[in-house]
Amino acid sequence: MYVHLRYKPRCMENDPNNANAPVTKAELKAEFGKFEERLDKKLDKLLSEQANVILEAVGETMEKKLDEKFDPVITKLDGTTPPARGPTAEARGPHRKARDRISIILLCLC
Questions:
Q1: Cβ neighbour number for residue 109 with a 10 Å cutoff
Q2: Which residue, among 71, 67, 49, has the nearest Cα to 59 in the 3D structure?
Q3: pLDDT surpassing 80 at residue 87
Q4: Contact 12, 21 (CB under 8 A)
Q5: Alpha carbons 73 and 28: distance in angstroms, whole number
Q6: pTM of the predicted model, to two decimals?
Q7: Does the pLDDT value for residue 82 go beyond 90?
Q8: Burial tier of 21 (Cβ tally within 10 Å: 0-12, 13-18, 19+)
Q9: Out of 58-67, 68-77, 78-87, which region has the weakest mean confidence (pLDDT)?
């Protein structure tokens, strides 16, 4: 009669301080999840910095190109349009009268 005994060898026990201990699926998933979160944060940060640099460079380039295209047009328009004038004496008259009435009322109230 044979008795077959099964036992776990010492190296197969789940001991976190033992480098030779096997890793469970749950432990691997937990560690991979932590690693993935850290990697996502770093990648997001780096990609946003890179995008900002690219947008600044494109913005400056577009601004220069627009200035080159529109400056001559605006200069020609400025030369052809008459200078703007202020309000006429007729338009200023009613406003001055209203201002004087308000100042008299304010003086009376004080």
A1: 6
A2: 67
A3: no
A4: yes
A5: 66
A6: 0.39
A7: no
A8: middle
A9: 78-87
Backbone angles phi, psi at 13, to 5 degrees: -70, 155
Written as one letter, the residue type at 8 is K
Query: What DSSP designation does 61 have?
Result: H
d(CA 32, CA 17): 19
> Do residues 11 and 18 touch, judged by C-beta distance below 8 A?
yes
Q: Which two tokens stand for residue 55?
A: 């947008």
Q: Are 53 and 59 a contacting pair, CB within 8 Å?
A: no
- CB 14, CB 21: distance < 8 Å: yes
pLDDT at 74: 80
CA distances from 11 to 4, 29, 35, 52, 69 (A): 21, 22, 27, 52, 76
Question: How does the average pLDDT of the chain come out, rounded?
Answer: 76
Contact 22, 12 (CB under 8 A): yes
